[in-house]
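We close this part of the discussion by returning to an individual protein. The amino acid sequence and the backbone structure tokens for this protein are reproduced below:
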Amino acid sequence: MRTPLPMVGRRTRRILVAIVALIVLIAVGSWVVSAWTDWLWFREVSYTSVFATNLRTKLALFAVFGVAAAVWLGGNIQLAYRLRPKVRPHSPEQQNLDRYRSAVTPRMRLIVAAVAIVTGLITGLSARGEWAQWLLFRNAQRFGTGDPQFGTDIGFYVFKYPFYRYLIGVGFTLVFLALVAVLLTYWLYGGVRLSGRGDRITNAARLHLSILVALFVVLKAVAYFLDQCGLLLGHTSTTGTDGAGYTAINALLPAKQILAWIALVVAVAVLVFSNAVARNLIWPGVSLALLAIAAVTIGGIYPGMVSTFTVKPNIPAKEGKYIQRSITATRAAYGIQDIGGGVYPASNTTPDAKLAADRNTVPNVRLLDPAKVPATFTQLQQVRGFYDFGDKLNVDRYTVDGRTQDYVVGVRQLDSSRLSGAQRTWQNRHAVFTHGYGFVAAPADTTCADGQPSFVSGSLGDTKKEATQGDCYSGPSKLDVRQPRIYYSDKLTDFAIVGKTGGADREYDRPGAGGANAPELQNTYDGSGGVPVGSYGRRLLYALDFHDSNFLLASDYFNADSKLLYVRDPRARVEKVAPFLTVDGDPYPAVVGGRVQWILDCYTTSSTYPYSQRTDLQSATSDSQTGSGTAAQDRRSINYIRNSVKATVDAYTGKVTLYQFDRTDPVLKAWNAAYGGILKTTIPADLAAHFRYPEDLFKVQRDTLNRYHITDPQAFNKQDNLWETPKDPTRSGGHKQPPYYVVAQFPQQNEPTFQLTAALTSRNRNNLAAILSAYYDSSGRPKLAVTELPGNSNFLGPNQVQSKMQNQEGIQNNLALGDSKTSSLDYGNLLTLPVADGLLYVEPVYIKGKNVPYPLLKTVLVGYGSQVGYGPDLKSAITNMTSSSTSTAPPGDDGSDAGGETGTSPDIDAAVRAIDKALADLSAARKADDYTAEGKALAELKKATKQYEDAKKAAKATASPGAGTTPSPGAKTPSPEAKTTPSPGS
């Protein structure tokens, strides 16, 4: 006896319906609340067109694909149900199905509707995720360059090809689902039988199923045609390049063409043999089997044989043409096709007067490492415990006192995680401690006497503190910062409720001037940023969106003028406004027109540029500083990138502005067309003056050039001149060395330039191979240049130089003094600079003492050729290195222009003795932790260094032209062994 199907009572059905309705209501309500608040936010930043375009596109794709999928699948099931046999054959199989038929038939419409709706929802959600690709497809642009195989414009691959692939994938899925659903329906109602006598399939079922099978095969034929273009996006394993190689073009391409036509023939054969000729499924099955065999043979075995027996024995001859395609496409896609530079012989290996006299690079060498001194900025400029400067500062250039140079800059941000005790109440976090205050800057090439940054901006008016800092602070700001309040920064993760009507100011602004007993200053936000939340309805809306009942309960903190500030991280703000852009991981603040603006570099990318090498964006942009002040990029593959947009976020109002930086980029043109022209084309000159070459783009280009600096296919195939990014010698963990911003004059540059640089070493060797630099020329156009070292030379790379400087006997002894129980060392950025026909290496060393728990610059290490030196500042370090070199040079080979000054004279000897004494006193003071004696010794060392330089100049001036003087046997000359290097406290 069959067990009857359980019946659901009316009460239970009502409860289930109520539960389902509640779930739907919550889901829809949550979506409505989120969409509504998003609309308000986009209206605040004046980018409602972005919100509207995205919402309209997603809804349209969801509706079109969802409805189409639902109608398609539901219609096929309904058609199969209508074409079911009116009289079912009697057989044990059919008797077993009676029970299921009796359960399904009364509910057939409900089942069909449920299946169709679920399929439609899934398909619609999938299509909704393709909104970006659809916008590019609809607004496709021409690149003006054809692919090297078919001559098709690159725009087809970037804009159209991905969406076509998606359509094919959806088509395969829906046809397969329909085939399965229809087959089950016919089987359930006897249209298809697995056993029994006679014809096991009805004519209607045969026709319906054969049409679906033929449609599937037709889609396969279309896929084969599309695959021909997809070959240009593939990978060639024999050469390790992307794009179609010899095997793909000469074996796979013809195979795809043949298989496409075979598939079309098979589709026709399925229809004809199933319904007109044989009227059975045997011959259609044979046709499908032949298609599968052809796919394996023509599309798999034959190309494999060509690769094994034709290509691999003679790769250079067979693949050379296709390697050249990859080189050309890759260099174009990554913007490195017009790279400048040349071979730099670096013939000078002895530090001499020419190095000391350099006025273009040496005076501008950056000694403050923005990744090392944030703690120093925080300790010296923090003022209150809840202020912070982040994990990494930035480098920018300003004109102060008539001199333009680079500065290490940061903003005094409010970090809510630093609030403690009673400060952590909801009211304090969201309505009192709402913002930071101040733009702090210090020259990058100098420090004051005790190794602290010499600040020129950021004062909070604490005159007592400024008096104790002496020459470490300039007093009133030398930068024109008219609005120093910071309401938007990466540390401001909490929302803020600001604005008021009447009454006293409530927001904490900054400490008052006049000492510890001075009253704290308060402020009320009057900027244009923020979403109005003065009404009860708005408060209810955001209480639902933020899941925070205090929007309703803390009524004392709301009034008619209240505003809500949220999404306050500049990077997140730009990503929300422009989701089609990839934002650089290192936004930086700048003072523009008296206001603090966050500047962000934004990229357009693609992964379907034919023949271009693919790069993992996260891997290429990661280095030793990623995650410590520099955000990591998402892990995704790209093979095209442009810095097409410069974005700004006002630190006070939160206003986001997008500037079109690259007007030739077709990808940006497509996005701009999609959103109705949201980009500004005119960039203010005072803003453009602070643009710098973007770091993440530079890192991607650097990694690409490690291989694609080779432009000859045969040399490329040999891969015996590859480069690599060296490991950071200053940090453990084996991470890549980050690039550095410097002001320097590189070879083939006419003046000192603010540029981003990186050293490159030979693959599997530590020797320096090249120096990559990137900058903007006088017209604002980006430039890349490679300063390549001669291939037959063995110049020291960063890790080799680091080891040499640390293990030099005199330096090693004095570094050991700073690395003790009471202090520790921290090595700053190691710069590699082409100077005076040689290579200058500069590395600042910081010390953190037990009583001074933040890094202070105490020693500068330098290297040039085979010589190294050290000193409390760059000038002293170069003097130390030059004097050591001169003392061992033969007469007339000291590097002086006249050739007559030998480096020895009574005055020089006296200066050397003074330097030795000062260094000895400095070491003794370090060992005793006597900061007073240390300061005195530093002053004496500075005085002795100047005495030494004056003596050298005097000796050179009095020397006879062309005549050398031989050092007397008793003359004392400085040497690394004779000197006691200042510990990193020097």
